[in-house]
Structure formats: C-alpha cells, structure tokens
Specification:
CATH architecture of the largest domain: 3-Layer(aba) Sandwich
Number of strands: 10
CATH superfamily of the largest domain: von Willebrand factor, type A domain
Structural class: alpha/beta
Number of helices: 19
Number of domains: 4
Strand content: 5-15%
Distance between the termini: 73 Å
Strand order of the largest sheet: 7-6-5-8-9-10
CATH topology of the largest domain: Rossmann fold
Amino acid sequence: MRDLIYSVDKWTTYLWRGLVRDSAVVREHVDRGRAKLATFPSFAREVFARLYSPPKPCLRTRPEDDWAKVLHAALDELPAFKKLAAHCAHNKELASAATANLLEQLVERLPDPPAPLDDPDARRREVRGLLDFLAALNANDPARAPLEQQIEEAKAHGHDAVDVMARFTDALDPDALRQALRRSVDDCATEVEEITSAAAGLSGLGGVHTSSDATQALLANTLKDSDALKRLGLLAGRMRRIAMGKRRTRTRHAASELSDVTNGSDLARVLPHELLKLTDPVLALDFLRAFVEGALLQYELVGNEREGRGPMVVLIDDSDSMDGPPATFARAAALALADLALTERRACRLVRFSHKINAVLDLRVGRDSAKELLAFLSGPVGGGTSFEMPLRAAREAIEREPAYERADVVLITDGEAELSPEFLREWTQRARREGLTTYAIHIGAHAPAVLRALTHEVTGLPALDPERLAAGLFDRITSPPRA
C-alpha cells in the first residue's frame, strides 16, 4: 500500500490495518472500492488519517493518482469536514465511524470501469527491475534483444494504464461528489458532535478533565451503537452544567457578611475613602503604592457555608412505568447529583430499584468507573415499585459503611408505594437525630402523600424539565444546610 496524495505515518497505518481487519463495514467499502481501483485502499487509508491525525501532503504525486486528488479536494471544499476532523482527532472510534460513512458515499459515486483499474506504478517497478537486469548483461549477450523488447512492452502497458486512469479521472463529476459528500459530512459531523457531547456528559465526574484513551474509546464505541445512551449522555451533560452553575452561584455568594476591616488589594472591597485618593494626583500615587503592597483598607467578608456536606445515596426508580424518557431523565439527574458530590469530594452511591435492588454503583473521587457506569446506565427497567426496600438499603449503607456516614438520600420516582407508619416514624426520628436530609423527586403531575410524609424536600416535575429540577432539587442541595 503506497501513499497517493498524503504521507501517512506508521502508527496511523497500523491503526488502519486493525480497523480493516476488525470492522466488517469498513472492509466491505474498501473491497468495493478495490473492485474499481487497485489503489482505492490507499485512498481509504488517507481519508482515515485525515480524520484521525492530519498527515502531510506528499511532495510529489503521480498523474494516475489525480482521481484521489479530486476526491480529497471535494472534501477540502466542505467547511464541515474541518469541523468533523477536529471532533475525530486522535479518537480511533470516531474517526473509523466517520470514515465508513464517507467511503460509502464515495464508492457509490465512482464510475464503474469494465475491469478493475491496475496501478501503473506496478509497471514502473517492473521496468526498473528489467533495466537493472539488462544492465548486468554483457553487451553481446543474445538475451539482451528479447529483454529490451520486454522492457518496451512493459513501458507501453504502463503508458496505457496511465491513460486509462486519466480518463477515469476525467469521468469524475466534482460537483456531484461535493453535493453527495456535503450531506454525508454534515450527518457525520452532527453524529460525532453528539457522541462527543454525550461522552462528556457520561465522563469526567467530579471535575476530572482527562480520561484515558481506553475510556474514550469505550465511550465512543458504546455511544455510536446506542441511541438511548447517547440521549442520556446529552441530557446528563445539560443537567450537570445546570447543577454546576448552581454550585458556582452558591460559592460566589457564600462570603457575603461584613465581618471587619483589613488590608488587601481587592478593589471590589476597598473602603470609599481609599478610592477618594484617586481624585488627587499626589494621593493617587499613595493609593497605587498601597495597592501594589496589598495595604489598602478593605472590607473583610465571611460566609456561613459549611465546608463540606455529607456523602450522597441516590435511589433511582427502575419500575415498568419509568420506561422511556422518565428513566433517561432520572438517570441523567442521578449523574448530575453524582457530579456535585464528587466535585465536593463526597462519596456517592447510585442504586437502581424496582420491586428489588437491580444494580448498585459506588463512585469515588479520582476513580475511573466508565466501564461500570455504562453497564449501570444500560440496565433495563422492569418490575413493580417498592420504596421501603431501597430506603432500607440506603440506611444500611449509612450505618455500616464509613464512606456513607451522615449521607443525604435522594429518591427519584414516578410512582407510589406504601411505607408503614413505623418505618416513617423511625426514618424521621433518625434523620432529625443524625442531621440527615432526604430529598424526593417525583416525575408526574402530583407527588403522592407518602413522599411528603417521608420528607418535606419534595420536588414535583409535571414535565421532564431540567430547569424545573434545578430550581427545586439542585438549588436546595447546593445550599448551606439549615441551622
């Protein structure tokens, strides 16, 4: 496999070979292209390289490769292709998905020759080999004449092959190619952007800004094959941004109570009479000196926010009635809560339940749990609804596991289940005694009385609106605890 228009490095070539070996879809498109052009596999590799890791153009190109130059130029004329390449950069899974889509469009629009077009470069290599052999012969050797004839025939075949490739290039319709590629590139760019955004929504919990190549590959490979997880990731990303916005607002206003006068250089807190110095040329110099030395008189503000809240246990209803958008919304909300907890270095446990405990996932600061998280979020819904069982599971974690001591409990449901008076009384007494808070999110028009008996912190969601959730749960859970 030789370079046509771009010089592809060895690592990208290695990845490409693995992709052709492992992906039946990519292999099918490459084989269909090879049935028309012997050098199509080289072009396909260059398309992948341009998406994965931009290669350098070849210093010299061959005339028989002008068809590839036309196809590459059609891609270059599409602004969305640059955007697509930026999303796919150094992500093998995204680059392979986009390459498969583009190759499908290109193969369809290549003319169908009567027979596969040979690579004229093979004739060049043949001629060079024959010339080397001829040079080794004696001038009077009788084998020279037939060998020279063979060389002339190989040259003639090579010229014919170049002419055939030139006619093939002339048969290409750049306008039709651009039109077809425009739709394909736009679709690819949209899909890859969605996958990238969804992956961001499902990773980096707790403010972790980097993830391993294996994690990125796992997320991309899973999301490109799962529309449900893609929707979940996009919604989770939106909820996480809203929740973090609430947290940042709380942090900005945490220190708002006037405590004393101190020295510093914070212009927002400087006393008025210090600012008056700026009206006098001489005093202004003294002001600047004090500013540089951090000696300006300024207000000292303090806040009453607690340094850190407790851990969090999030209970997610998995019953039949949650199937579809409610389950996606509930799991996205749970991820936003987990992100809040981990950002504040608090442990978080996610529990999916119906009439039984379906799955449990413990999240810790700094731990890469992408594989376990995807498995947890991919689980199906089904079964009835029990509140007492998951609440008891949360209570057991709080009592028996040090990581969840004094944890807040969040229950997300769309249904109603019974809680005995004894259980409610015990739960309320312990919560009051131990300083714990229980939150409930009810998806539906009217929250059942049992949730209001469990806690006064009930957020009702008549519609699946993240902003409504922010004004309810996120606003409360990021606020300082009541005295």
